[in-house]
Amino acid sequence: MYSFDVVRPKSVADAVAALGEEEAQALGGGQTLIPSLKQRLAMPSVLVSLAAIDEIKGVSSEGGGLTIGGGTTHATVAKDCAASYPALAAMAGNIGDPAVRNRGTIGGSLANNDPAACYPAAALASGATIVTNTREIAADDYFQGMFTTALEEGEIITAVKLPIPEKAAYIKFEQPASRFALVGVFVAKFTDGVRVAVTGASEEGVFRWTEAEAALSGDFSAAALEGLSVSADGLMTDLHGSAAYRAHLIGVLTKRAVAQA
Amino acid sequence: MPKDHGIGAAQKRREDVRFLTGAGQYTDDINVYGQTYCHFLRSDVAHGKITSLDTSAAEAMPGVLRIFTGKDFEGIGGLPCGWQVTDKNGDPMKEPPHPVLAQGKVRHVGDPICAVIAETLDQARDAAEAIELEIEDLPAVVDMRAALETGSAKVHDDLEDNLCYDWQFGSDQAVVDKAFAEAAHVTTLELVNNRLVANPMEPRVAVAEYARAKDESTLYTTSQNPHVIRLLMGAFVLGIPEHKLRVVAPDVGGGFGTKIFHYAEEAFVTFAARQINRPVKWTSTRSEAFMSDAHGRDHVTKIELALDAENNFIGLRTDTLANMGAYLSTFSSSVPTWLHGTLMAGNYKTPAIQVNVKAVFTNTVPVDAYRGAGRPEATFQLERLVDKAARELGVDPIKLRRQNFIESFPYATPVAVEYDTGDYVATMDKLEEMIGIPGFAARRAESEAKGKLRGLGVNCYIEACGIAPSNLVGQLGARAGLYDAATVRVNATGSISVMVGAHSHGQGHETAFPQVVADMLGIDESMIDIVHGDTSKIPFGMGTYGSRSLAVCGSAMVRATEKIINKAKKIAAHLMEASEGDIELKDGMFTVAGTDKSVAWGDVTLAAYVPHNYPLTEIEPGLEETAFYDPANFTYPAGAYACEVEVDPETGKVTIERFAAADDFGNVVNPMIVEGQVHGGLAQGIGQALLENCVYDADGQLLSASYMDYAMPRAGDVPFYMVDHSCATPCTHNPLGVKGCGEAGAIGSPPAVVNAVLDALNHAGHDVAHIDMPVSPHRVWQAMQG
Amino acid sequence: MTKVTMTVNGKSVSKEVRGNMLMTEFLRDELHLTGTHVGCDTSQCGACNIHVNGETVKGCTIFAAECDGAEVGTIEGQANADGTLNVIQQAFQDHHGLQCGFCTPGMVMSAATLLKENPKPTEAEIRHYLEGNICRCTGYHNIVKAIMAASGQDVSTIAAE
Lengths: 261, 786, 161
Fold this sequence. Notes:
The complex is a heterotrimer. Chain A is α+β, with helices and mostly antiparallel strands. Chain A has three domains: about 45 residues, Uridine Diphospho-n-acetylenolpyruvylglucosamine Reductase, domain 2; about 110 residues, Uridine Diphospho-n-acetylenolpyruvylglucosamine Reductase, domain 3 (2-Layer Sandwich), CATH 3.30.465.10; about 90 residues, CO dehydrogenase flavoprotein, C-terminal domain (Enolase-like, domain 1). Helix content of chain A is about 30%, strand content about 25%. Chain A is built from ten helices and twelve strands. In chain A, helix 3 runs antiparallel to helix 4. In chain B, about 30% of the residues lie in helices and about 25% in strands. In chain B, strand 18 and strand 19 form a beta hairpin. In chain B, helix 9 packs parallel to helix 18, helix 15 packs across helix 16 and helix 17 crosses helix 18. Chain C has five helices and five strands. Chain C is elongated. The N and C termini of chain C lie far apart (about 60 Å).
């Protein structure tokens, strides 16, 4: 690692101020950032740890929805959302491993927007709202391609608001080495329609499978997906699977998610 | 009643206490006063010419002590290869130089170019970034077939081409040709044995210090064989005589072959410590390990089996391309030849066998022994082939194997080795019982009810362990003897230190070896300690690999203990005023046959060191003996393995549902440790079959360069295993009757897994002849697409 | 440099640390607690697992500065007060749940929080919990068995079908 300082502000305001410094970078749980720092892929002057900011931690429910602080760990989401939003809790409880879940945060995952991460699929399928220190961003506007989001420099995710669907499920087919999603599909059924978000597959990062959404909004059953397929164009090919295989998996996993929801 | 003492007892491991409490001492735990840190600048291209290299700016950076380049190693030896293979034309293999730091050219991603020594590691890394280096890219040689084509780019400019050797072995050509000409059926299979990265959990580390006033160097290194490193580094690379060079391999966090070899980094830190007169430490990161630890396997093979009308195996021929990588690592040349070709008979009495191996240089990390080393490659091709033959002929694959088993021993194979003992029928019987063949149909039906396909795969294996008879391997090109040594030092009070040449890095020698000595002397194991891993403390030793420690070093220990007993009897005879021939040793007491006279072990040992009443004119005081043991033959562990898998037909994902291993290891000293060795081997074999794959792209970039892309088996990928070693036919030529158990699991398991997947697919109507490892979900899905 | 104060295995320590100093470096280099190992650089192998405020985290993926004020536990603090092995450590020895010992500290630390959260885990739950602990020696069989035994479950029939 290059040399840098670590600061631990206790409030969002202090964190925002600290991030105003030249070459300052936010540090969530660090589970992705720290390995990349070890490879010397980033050269921050100061890392602003968000882990000591109590105001962005925890889960609360209001008006049929959940508000999850941006600094809430995967382990906390897995535990505290188990009753209110079991599909989300199960997803969080399967990210990485227990040690990663004890550090990694929802805000950190969404800010990073790894194309194979789980949270982007959950947020997009849930129609979440990403709350920052300056504004609220609809998930549909937030994800802008692999490792790219609507966040501005120095903007911090303070919370994520998620409407709770009537039914939902997330199925992850793991890449065997990293255990990220080779393909992950999150299906959420709301009274006014179904949302299907796919991670791990596209070169553009997480996306909604709108044909499946239309079919499922009329008939929420695996059978409704018969005959539908995703084009392999624009899907990733790597050591672990071709674009065609990923396209195939999207169909299989979507059906399984619907069946499980 | 299970034994709790001596040979055969499942004693708990004494070394565990330090490992479980964080008190182990691994090489990276060693810090020497005044130590400096070393960072290697490595090539990021597979093949290139160094056109300019300027370290001056980097040398001026804070904390930098010195930067070494290839120039510093001009005229100094390169890393040697320990085995010369002879080409079928009688020529020696091509042996290009393997410099410690690159000399003008880089030949694989990770090839070390410069080494920066600084006061801190961060300073060394900062300086490495400031080195001005220009490399002119050259075309990379990656694919072995392309490497052998005329006009291919060459890894080594001074060689004619990329062929290291073309080796042929086995029965006469005419005999093999005749078998194939007369065959009623010929089964042919082309397959790849996937390149693997050994990945012991402890990355390599080397710490060197130099005592200038005494001109003595000490190297602490993560090695399976410190004496081998001392020999190779001292004699061939740095020119340091043995008495001025101490090599210590303390607690080592797993080896699996990749810590046998002599590496550039350990030679470098030893060299640099002398140059700068400060201790130098290098600790590999895992990322660095992927591009600098020798890799394993990487064979491409075509194999053919000739059968007569009664399905007897009458001929076998196999043609393999073996990847050597960019340079010859220490034992690389022997792996696809003498550790592979000699095992091609397997468990079968095939009378005519011919083996061809072409070893090929490529712009990849050197390839050398990895758990099993050559024997997994032999087993995989043979046992996949037999399974394919059974499917083509419509016969039961177990029946086909049984029909062709070797049943009388000793058995001389057409590929030079003589199996001393074995009982392949017994292990197969045991296996069938363990896996529960009659219940398989019901288990398959259960899987099918869940929408899954189920398959059963079976195979046999044989291995040659207890490496190796020195005179034989010398004829075959080995440049070292492969005996081992032990010193048994009995102290005045009767406690014992046994200094052994074997090195324990997970095998539990510290527990199992005392069981042998305790058994022989009739004293408690707690009186005996094992000393290993330090050339200044042990007589000599070739180290631990090839499942040799107990068979070879254990035998040396037995011989030395026998000498101790002989001398102790002389002392006891003197003390009891009896004839030496009448002395018996039992339960730690010396008695005179037919009398009630006795002296205790401790009385005798005390007399040896306080020789007041002692036959000083006949024997020396003291009680310490050394023995070197050179085995008369290899040992031949063998067995039969079975695997049941479920395949998800929609995703192609394979899960291991049941795994059974019936092994014949001969006699067993500590069954708990033996079972653990099998478990670990099985996980590595299952890893090779389902998960692990080391992949380069066409430009020689390593794609599977970390655990993000190299899939290590995790707890959730493997089942509880059923293992058994009760079908034991003791080795006939070593004093313990042991055969070795370290590699069996990794050798025997890959074909069982792949055979099971193919059984599942074919039973479900998919006409799939073979899938290369790793049998990943993607590959299974592709195979099912037709 | 930042000053950090934390409790490590029940003992308070204060040190000046670099911002980029990981807990693994802090423990190994500053406190000479070398039982916490480093097996990879991509936060996957778990040889570095330690406890921070009672939770298992990867010591190689958390800065010392982030642990200011924390209660830290390492393998060196796991044995009973009289130096004997604790229940989990003893089960690992009894069931041969370790070979080279390098991944072992991380395994023991993971097992401890698993059993705290889930006192009687099933085989599948144990295997899932060990997702981030790679062992190359044991094939996991005896590790899973040891953890089941440490939780008081009967393991005598495992794989003896």
